[in-house]
Amino acid sequence: MPDAEHDTPCGLHLFWDDAVTDYDFGPGHPMDPTRLALTKHLVDAYGLSSGPGVTVRAAPSAGDSTLRLVHTAEYIDAVRRVAADPSSSDPRHGLGTEDNWAFAAVHRASALIAGQSVAAAEAVWRGESPHAVNFTGGLHHAMPDRASGFCVYNDPALAIARLLELGAERVAYVDVDVHHGDGVQQAFWNDPRVLTVSLHESPATLFPETGWSTETGGPDAPGSAANLPLPAGTGDSGWLRAFHALVPELLAAFRPQVLVTQHGADTHVEDPLAHLAVSLDAQRIVAQSLHRLAHETAGGRWVALGGGGYAVVDVVPRTWTHLVATAAGRPVDPAAETPEEWRAEVYRRTRQRAPLRMTDGVGPDWRDFHDGYDPADRLDQAVLAARRAVLPHHGLLP
C-alpha cells in the first residue's frame, strides 16, 4: 500500500552553516560529521538548495536564554567548562563519558545546531516558509541537566519550547529514529500542549531502554506521549505498517498547529548501532507521509530535523537528501544516478565508493492495520499495545 508524494513545489527554508561540522567528538566516534557535509554536497549536487522557493539560511547560535528553555543553567555552565578543558570530564552531566566525548567546540557547535532548529521553528511559525529543514539537528537524547546518547543540547525540544513561547497551543513531535526520543518526551511529559510520538526499536534490545507503550504522559497530560517499540529485525513492511497504524490517527485527532519531525536514518538495515532492517526506500516513504500529514493536519507547517544514522556514506546523505527534496516538493527519482561530482567528493573525503543510485532497489509495501491483524505476530502485538495505551486518551477507541 504505497503512499503518494505531495509533489507540489513548496516553500522551504533549509538551515545550514559549515561550522555545524565542528560538532565532532573525534576520530573513531560513530557521530562522524562527514555525514553532514556529504548530505549538503548531495543536496547541492541535485540543485535542491537553489531550486524555486528554497532559501538556504544560517542562523545564529542559540543563546543562554534560549538554551534555558530546556536546559539548566548549571548544565550549560558545565558544557562550557568541558569545552575550555577537553581533557576533563564531568560524568554527573554526562560529559567526557564513553558516549559523549569532550571536545573544544562542544558548546559552540552544539549551540549552533540548536540555533538552526530554533530558527527553523520561528520561520515556520511566523509564516516565512511553510516548511523548514535542519538535517544537522534531531539530537533528541539530551536531558535538561546532562548529555546523553551523543546529544549535548536537545534542539528538537528547544524548537518546540520556542514555538510554545511564541504562542503555539498544540505542537506534535513525531520521531522515527531507531532510538526512543526520550529527551523530548521528558521535556514535555506533563505538558498537554505537546504530543510526542516515537516509533523505535524495543527498549529490551536498544539504548536508551525507555519508550514502552505504557509511557503515555504525565498526570496533567494523559495521552501526550505515544510510543511504539518494535521488535528487533523489523523490516520495511512491518515498520511502515506500524507507522501508518498509529501516527495518522493521532495527528488527525490532536490537530497540531505545527508538526516537528525527527528523521534518524539509523533504522536502516546497514546501520552499525541498531537492529532494524529498514531500507532507504521505506525511509523516503515515511518522509513523504509526514509531509502529507503536515498538510492535512497542521496547515502545512512542518519543521523536519535529522537525527541518528551511522552508515556515513551509504545511507545518511541519500536519506536526508530525499527528506530535503520531499520538503521542497521536488522529489528525487529513486532510480536516479547519484551525481558524479558527489561520488568524487565521497571518495575524496572517505576513500570509499559512493552508492550509485538514490534507492536500495526495493519497492516497500505494507498491509493496512485496519484490514486485519495477527494476534500471534510480534509486530502486531506491539502495534496493538501502543494503540490500546494511547488512543483512548484521544477518544479514538472505546
UniProtKB/TrEMBL annotation:
A Pfam family cross-referenced in the UniProt record is Hist_deacetyl
Q: Which UniProt keywords apply?
A: Acetoin catabolism
The chain positions of domain Histone deacetylase read 29-326
The pathway that the record names for this protein is: Ketone degradation; acetoin degradation
Name the protein family. Belongs to the histone deacetylase family.
- Name of this chain's protein: Acetoin utilization protein AcuC
State the organism named in the record: Kitasatospora paranensis
Its lineage reads:
Bacteria, Bacillati, Actinomycetota, Actinomycetes, Kitasatosporales
